[in-house]
Amino acid sequence: MIPFIPADTNPAMIMMVAGALMVFFGHQGRGIIGLIAVVLSGWQLFNLGVGPMGDAQVYGTGEILGYEFMPLRLDKLSVIFAIVFHSAAFLNVIYGWQSATKVEASMGIVYAGSAVGGALAGDLLTLFIFWEIAALSSVFIVWAGGGHAAFKAGMRYLVIQVMSGLLLFAGIVLHLARGGSSEFGAFELVGEAGVDPVAALILFAFGIKACFPLLHTWLQDSYPKASGVGAVMLSAFTTKLAIYTLARGFAGTDILIPIGVVMTAFPVFFALIENDLRKVLSYSLNNQLGFMVCAIGIGTELAINGAAAHAFVHITYKALLFMGMGAVMQQAGTARATELGGLHKSMPWTTAFTIVGAMSISAFPLFSGFVAKSMITVAAGEEHLLLVYIMLLFASAGVLEHSGIKIPYFAFFAHDRFAPSLRNGVPRPKEAPLSMLIAMGIAAFLCLLVGFYPPILYGLLPYETDYHAYTAEHVATQMQLLLFAIFAFMLLVKFKLYPAEVRSQNLDVDWFWRVPGRKALMATVAGVASVWHTVWGGLKGLSGSVVSSLGTLHGPGGVLSRYWTVGFTALFTAAVLAVVLITAFLN
Q1: More confident residue, 511 or 562
Q2: Is residue 499 located within the same domain as residue 527?
Q3: What topology does the record note for this protein and the membrane (predicted)?
Q4: Are 273 and 506 in contact, with CB atoms under 8 Å apart?
Q5: Using one digit for the tens of pLDDT, what is the confidence trace for 486-512?
Q6: pLDDT tens digits along 18-46
Q7: CA 167 to centroid of chain Cα atoms
């Protein structure tokens, strides 16, 4: 118990209040407040306790307008996400200790708190509130990247995030209007009557933030525009909160299996040809989300455990990779592969930590990715989903190519862009600041700890499990896959078949709404403006005619302004009276 905090306080509120207060302090003060807030919030989470799946610990329940509110529900599914969100917030505070702006430091803690609140929300309306707070706080982190490009990307990001919130709210209202429970539980997408449009609406809202295919480009558009510190913050919360909501609301929904498989596959090709290494990581993030979505679609206890475990380790190693590229960008001024290389000579610690992250995301044995990702592939195999199993193996090899090899190779090795003959007087970048190295060191330690001792992760999973990652079959299969992928990379480089790193702008599906979509929008605006001008011109001409006619009648010399004789006035009055009397008689 924390003496000065009520026993049933939501841990999210501790971080969010602290984030609001941080704007009044300097660098050191913001860092200290951030650490204290994360520790207090984590301690409060620990004190509340956790129930097993289906038997949650519930706090602060009430009823408003006939609907039950359950702002704090703790079971093993919600708590594992809340724990890793706390871990990510802790790493963010340390990483940005010296470099985070006031906006990033403050909004980063609010953002983390909203993710924790969303994971612990027991009812749909509470979820919606935290869903929107996460959207609004995170857009400030994008804007903090600075420059016109970051502002425009932030505006596009905000539109997409608000759209997701509006769809979620519409789905909640329709669900409640037809007598559904306000508790956030499982939805049935397909019933006896076919597809449920309300459940489909809510799934679509979740899918936007989970980066379903064709809905994914907001991630690649916004994350690379943020600062090095901001991108680390963004990588941890929004998409993983969406994964949690899918696991809570749509576990076992078959359509998620092909959606997840496509998500694992298509980003591989974009990542291989991308020059901006932070954008490579954004595509890689999309790829890793696909594993989780596919596991949720499979829906067995092993698969849900795999999705939760993969989300847990992914937040850590993806944060580590974004930290490494953030440090490179801060020290070298760029994260483009064509402008990097040879940094291992002056940034050895950053190089080593990034390699740990690369080996973790590639699922090498003894690294965290292996003990989680193998659960998903095994779950697919146990359900006899052969094509899904093969596609997941292909995607795993692709991860090694673009994140396991490309990121460290082109950033720290390859051609030395800072050699005396090439750098044109530009000094070789120095090692990252101490706070960044400490954060990267902690993240690397967690990747190795989970890899060496999986029970520390398996004990947190939603369902009890006796799964063992380190069997001869699992290790042999994964090593064969990884060695084959490494050999393929060496052959491609040797025979100059590997996609060359060139300064270019690669097109994704967002081209359709950025180019023809924008033209269609502008044409629509021009058409509406033309119609408006026509209508307004007609109304203006009509009103002018009416005013002119009134002037003719009432103006000097007009019919109604002339002096009339008494006889004419009496006759006119009698006529009006006759009309009134006849009308009254007829009625």
Answers
A1: 511
A2: no
A3: Multi-pass membrane protein
A4: yes
A5: 888 788 777 777 766 667 677 777 777
A6: 999 998 888 889 999 999 999 999 999 99
A7: 16
CA distances from 481 to 15, 363, 394, 478, 549 (A): 42, 10, 9, 5, 88
Q: Which helix (H) or strand (E) holds 191?
A: strand 190-191
Query: Is residue 499 domain-shared with residue 520, that is, in the same domain?
Result: no
Whether residue 102 is predicted with pLDDT greater than 80 in this model: the reply is: yes
Q: Mind listing the pLDDT tens digit for each residue in 216-259?
A: 889 999 999 999 999 999 999 999 999 999 999 999 999 999 99
Together in a domain, 501 and 527: no
Q: Provide the pLDDT for residue 180.
A: 87
Element (H, E) at 68: strand 67-69
Indicate whether 576 and 552 sit together in one domain: yes
Same domain, 286 and 369: yes
Domain total for the chain?
A: 2
Q: Do 482 and 525 belong to one domain?
A: no
Q: Examine the domain organization and report whether 303 and 404 are in the same domain.
A: yes
How many Å is the maximal CA-CA distance in the chain? 120
Q: What domain range is 581 assigned to?
A: 516-586
Report if residue 520 sits inside a domain. yes
- As given in the structure block, the two tokens for residue 348 are 């050895």
Same-domain check for residues 546 and 450: no
Name the residue with tokens 């060191």: 441
User: CA 460 to CA 452: how far, in whole Å?
Assistant: 16
- Cα dist from 219 to 102, 238, 311, whole Å: 23, 10, 17
pTM over 0.70: yes
Higher pLDDT, 338 or 283: 283
Angle, CA of 446, 101 and 110, to the nearest 5°: 65
Domain boundary among 473, 506, 539: 506
Give strand pairing partners of 68: 63
Coil, helix or strand for 509?
coil
Taking Cα atoms as reference points, which of 151, 114, 110 lies closest to residue 131?
114
Q: Of 471, 488, 506, which residue constitutes the final position of a domain?
A: 506
Segments in 210-347 forming alpha helices (H): 217-222, 228-234, 238-249, 256-273, 277-298, 301-332
Q: Give CA angle at 77 (235, 191), nearest 5°.
A: 100
Compute the CA torsion angle 267, 268, 274, 280 (nearest 10 deg): 70
Inside any domain, residue 196:
no
DSSP H or E stretch at residue 201: helix 197-209
